[in-house]
Design goal:
The protein has 362 residues and is mainly β. It has 2 helices and 25 strands. Helices cover 8% and strands 42% of the residues. Strands 9, 10, 12, 13, 14, 19, 22 and 25 form an 8-stranded antiparallel sheet that branches. A 5-stranded antiparallel sheet has the order 15-18-23-20-21, with no helix packed on it. The protein is elongated, with a radius of gyration of 32 Å. It starts with a strand and ends with a strand.
């Protein structure tokens, strides 16, 4: 049904649903949009008869909230007042601006959620309704502003265990962790290569990010953690580089019984393998982490890995399909600084064990 009416004697208007606008002024499906009902007068608790009711034509509850209307100002002095949802909307916007001033890192949709959850008082029927929305905007008692920067551990960069190397590139994972009383709003992670300018690697709330490193290049990562009040702390890693100790490296001390095999898919074009129980290889290195690169396959078995003579893990190289350049094991020290350590791989005798390379982060 189409109804026509005369609006204050000035213009011919039409209405489709009682109390409802003929069309939306903005996309009310937007997660950042706030539809505001008018409580008139401002000192009352009752919705104005002119304030649009929900639901929307597609059944969503509206308005989102309500705010005071019929307010006085330098322009609208008592006994006159500025009314309508035209007045209620800037009242809600002013409250939103105050909340944003306290927590400037909130996104618009987070601000909307925070307003609904923390700055409304229920009106009308209990709970969210199609007349008042979540309720009337009443700002809570101000809390002491957060002026404390987040705490931040890391960043720490290590070769990604379980990954497959490229023919040259080495997948790295950068980890870090922040905490804050008003929670972490976001991290910004930057990467510098060979002392060059910082480039943005990541922005978001995840506590790790990946990048590919080239052996012998020098890297630095830095992480900036923001809380919602826009306090921040930034930590920068030391400069690090990945050193490749290939299967034929003179630094690798092999027991007897190892055979070298050329394979174009292997890292550096070759790997060594052994199958005898206790066939072993040892690498003494200086770094903060070491990664064993191996070939995997159906005839492959497992090996025990020791760091500085202490058993760490039994690693299986079995795979139904052949896997090349696999980072099968990564060990990291606790300090994050380059130290002298040794890794030893000892075959368990249940199949082939492959040494393709050891990569050291130094
Ligand atoms: Ca209600
Ligand atoms: Ca803080
Ligand atoms: Ca190799």
């Amino acid at each position: 049904m189409l109804e026509f009416m005369v609006n204050q004697g000035n213009a011919l208007s039409h209405s489709t649903v009682a109390y409802s606008a003929t069309g939306p002024a903005a996309d009310s499906k937007s997660t950042s949009e706030v539809s505001v009902g008018a409580i008139d007068p401002w000192y009352g608790t009752t919705i104005a008869d002119y304030s649009s009711r929900g639901p929307t034509n597609d059944g969503r509850t509206k308005p989102d909230l309500s705010a005071a209307s019929c307010v006085t100002s330098s322009i609208y002095a008592a006994p006159d007042c500025f009314n309508g949802t035209s007045a209620a909307t800037p009242v809600a916007a002013g409250a939103a601006a105050l909340m944003l001033d306290q927590f400037p890192m909130m996104s618009s949709s987070q601000l909307k959620t925070s307003m609904l959850n923390n700055a409304t008082v229920d009106r009308g029927v209990t709970g969210t309704d199609n007349t008042y929305g979540r309720g009337e905007v009443i700002l809570p008692t101000p809390v002491s502003p957060d002026v404390t920067a987040p705490s931040l551990t890391g960043p720490r960069a290590t070769i990604t265990e379980g990954s497959a190397l490229g023919t040259s590139l080495v997948p790295y994972t950068v980890t870090y962790s922040g905490s804050d009383a008003s929670t972490i709003a976001r991290y910004e992670v930057d990467l510098s290569v060979n002392g060059g300018a910082w480039s943005r690697l990541y922005t978001g709330t995840a506590k790790s990010v990946s990048f590919n490193a080239t052996p012998a290049s020098r890297y630095q990562v830095r992480v900036k953690a923001y809380d919602y009040a826009a306090n921040w702390r930034m930590n920068t890693s030391r400069t690090f580089t990945v050193s490749n100790y290939g299967d034929a490296s003179a630094n690798l001390a092999y027991s007897t019984g190892w055979t070298s095999l050329s394979a174009t898919s292997a890292y550096g074009g070759a790997y060594k393998y052994a199958s005898a129980t206790n066939a072993s290889v040892r690498l003494a290195f200086t770094g903060d982490s070491v990664t064993w690169i191996a070939t995997k396959g159906a005839n492959f078995g497992s090996a025990d890995v020791y760091i500085d003579g202490v058993w760490k893990k039994t690693v299986s190289l079995y795979s139904a399909t052949t896997g090349w350049r696999k980072a099968v094991y990564t060990w990291s020290n606790t300090s994050g600084n380059a130290e002298n350590h040794a890794i030893k791989v000892v075959a368990r005798g249940d199949g082939f064990v492959a040494i393709d390379s050891f990569l050291v982060n130094s």
